[in-house]
Amino acid sequence: MPSCGLPGGVSKAITEEERKTIIDAAEYAVEFCKFALGLFDDLVLKNKKYVDLVVGDIYKHRTYYMGLVDKNNKVNFYDGQIRVVDPNGKEFAKFRAQEYLDHIREHVEPWSYIKFCYLKNVGWKGFVDGEDSGIYRVAPLARLNASDGMATPLAQEAYEKMYETLGGKPVHSTLAFHWARLIEALYASERVLELARDPELTSPDIVNLPTETPKEGIGVVEAPRGTLFHHYQTDDRAILTRVNLIVATTNNAAPISMSIERSLTGFST
Question: Where would a tag sit more exposed on the chain, N or C end, judged by fewer CB atoms within 10 A?
Answer without folding.
Answer: N
